[in-house]
Specification:
This protein is α/β, with parallel strands linked by helices and 304 residues long. It is built from nine helices and eight strands. Pfam families: PAPS_reduct.
Length: 304
């Protein structure tokens, strides 16, 4: 699935010409059409110009996330949601489930969950509760390539390599599995849980953006919502959430790099505490990991 960014084309000039309704060649005459649609074997390519994206973002800025999601379900083929089951992702999932019930025969927006093998027990418990509560929401789980446990990962790459080789860790458990998910599922557009109120690099994110390196349309449907708004939605709609949020956590990632948030701190202050790092890899430029990708490929390449 490819995304094409086009330059805005110049508007063509038109001349007004009287059309004879009985003229067969005009296309306006009555009669039987010879058009017969053939079954589509591939999803259409998404073609968006920069000015079109800007226009869409302007229109969506004041829209409720439910309306944004309704639009995106129609607008984008092969739409998926990538989530680690944080509050924003859960709210998005609940909205999508409600929209799905409005038209049960429509295509579902499946979930992509990257199992790093280092999630909290509470996170895995939440996944089970989500499956039970939302049977109409398929979940695709992607793990580090060829790995089934954290012990296996550390036997291969070294004990606590998540601290000693952070970029390599991010590539192995997040960047590569997500790209594999995009490729295997033929993802054209993906919903994310990023919001501006989370601060750092997320402070000015648009609702729709293009990841040109990954050739993916990224959509942040709750970009304009605050933590309080998301939390209120979760409570009002009785959406299951991670038990750690009742213990002072606001953003939950891997157990080795997540701590509770202090009074007055940003909601993501508990992620990578004391480090300059603010993202886990999937929202960084893909080119940041190109050297690591090359090294990994050379290790797995067959010897000729």
């Amino acid at each position: 699935m490819s995304v094409i960014m086009e330059q805005a084309a110049a508007q063509p000039s038109y001349t007004h010409e009287k059309i004879d309704p009985n003229d067969i060649e005009s296309g306006y005459a009555s009669g039987q059409s010879d058009y017969s649609p053939s079954p589509r074997t591939e999803k259409p390519v998404i073609s968006l110009s920069k000015s079109h994206i800007e226009y869409l973002n302007e229109q969506m800025e004041s829209m409720h996330p439910m309306d944004i999601l309704r639009f995106c379900r129609i607008m984008f083929p092969n739409l998926y949601q990538s989530t680690a089951f944080g509050l924003t992702g859960l709210a998005t999932m609940d909205m999508l489930s409600k929209i799905q019930k409005e038209n049960p025969e429509s295509r579902t927006v499946d979930l992509i969950f990257l199992d790093t093998l280092y999630h909290f027990k509470e996170t895995y418990d939440l996944v089970d509760r989500v499956r039970e509560r939302y049977p109409n929401v398929p979940i695709h789980i992607f793990k580090p390539d060829g790995m089934e446990s954290a012990e296996q990962l550390e036997e291969t790459y070294g004990e606590k390599f998540y601290h000693n080789a952070g970029d390599m860790y991010d590539f192995i458990v997040k960047v590569e599995p997500l790209q594999r998910a995009y490729d295997e599922l033929k993802v054209a557009a993906v919903l994310n849980g990023r919001r501006r109120s989370q601060g750092a690099a997320r402070g000015s994110i648009p609702i729709i953006e293009i990841d040109e390196e990954r050739n993916i349309v990224k959509i942040n449907p709750l970009a304009a919502w605050s933590f309080a708004q998301v939390n209120q939605y979760i409570k009002e709609n009785n959406v299951p959430y991670n038990a750690l949020l009742d213990q002072g956590y606001k953003s939950v990632g891997d157990w080795h790099s997540t701590v509770p948030v202090g009074e007055g701190e940003d909601e993501r202050a508990g992620r990578w505490k004391g480090q300059s790092k603010t993202e886990c890899g999937i929202h960084n430029k893909k080119s940041k990991y190109s050297e690591i990708a090359t090294q990994m490929e050379s290790k797995t390449a067959p010897v000729s």
